[in-house]
Design brief:
The protein is mainly beta. The protein is 13% helix and 44% strand. It has helices at residues 67-70, 147-150, 153-165, and strands at 12-20, 23-28, 32-37, 51-57, 60-66, 83-91, 94-102, 104-112, 131-136, 141-145. A five-stranded mixed beta sheet has the order 8-1-2-10-9. A five-stranded mixed beta sheet has the order 3-6-7-5-4. Strand 4 (51-57) and strand 5 form a beta hairpin.
Length: 166
């Protein structure tokens, strides 16, 4: 489990939950800037498959990634509830804005940090370093993501540069 999270029964944090390929995920609400409808994403040639393109968000060019592809699954099928979660990720002491395509947004959940179980070391369909932990809400399991790792600007930049050089 992440050292920044202590097992304090009085400690709570809010997570935005969303659906990707019938699985429920959550990301700290502190990283979420806004949620917008999927629209006007301009594809960029020679990008890795997980980069859907860019969008203009009030004058700011925001790269948009498909989280489903990032987790080695089939690309997200754009439907009525598909949306883009605009996230602010800290990279080299700078805040970077990135859009993440998800099938649908569910809710904001307040989660007692004491109820988070460590990330599984085997059997996970996404890389364990992306996972903060797992919480059972009673109805389902929610996989809590480490936003700074799933959307690692450094790693994505290396992948993009590698694709462009070929």
């Amino acid at each position: 489990m992440d050292e920044s999270f202590t097992k304090d029964p009085l400690s709570h944090q809010h997570f935005l939950t969303f659906v990707l390929r019938d699985e429920c995920f959550g990301i700290s609400i502190s990283a979420v800037k806004e949620i917008i409808e999927y629209d006007n994403v301009t594809p960029i040639p020679l990008m890795p498959e997980f980069v859907k393109g860019v969008l203009n968000l009030r004058g700011e060019v925001v790269p948009v990634i498909d989280l489903s592809v990032r987790f080695n699954k089939a690309p997200t099928e754009i439907q009525k509830r598909t949306c883009i979660v605009i996230l602010e990720i800290v990279f080299e002491e700078q805040t970077v804005t990135i859009g993440a395509v998800v099938d649908s947004v569910s809710e904001v959940m307040e989660i007692n940090m004491d109820t988070i179980e460590p990330a599984p070391t085997f059997g996970a369909r996404i890389r364990a370093q992306f996972i903060l932990g797992v919480v059972n809400t009673g109805d389902q399991f929610v996989i809590l993501l480490r936003g700074e790792r799933v959307l690692s600007v450094e790693e994505m930049t290396a992948v993009i540069e590698n694709v462009v050089e070929k």
